[in-house]
Amino acid sequence: MLTTFWALSDPVRLEIVDRVASGSELTVTQLAAVLPMTRQAITRHVRTLEESGLLVGEREGREHRYRVNVAPLTHASGWLDSKRTAWDDALSRLAEYLEE
Questions:
Q1: Each residue of 65-78: pLDDT tens digit?
Q2: Cα torsion 34, 36, 39, 43: sign
């Protein structure tokens, strides 16, 4: 799960995940057409996202088409939900204490 948060901590990688998640499968060439960086730079970011499990690539001809793997995102979301509950409880107790 730590690799998920680390991979998403970079704004470019977050943008790549958003773009792939909002459309159909995309190639590095398609991402390079809409992002202000070189194809090589995008390839490095995509490789990091693949290593973290957030993107899955399938070879199609000379290129790979990438799609989002939701499993790491679901796991991270569940962890955040559990922390949110704990923080909500702690903040509610603090509010009650301060009102007294």
A1: 999 999 999 999 99
A2: negative
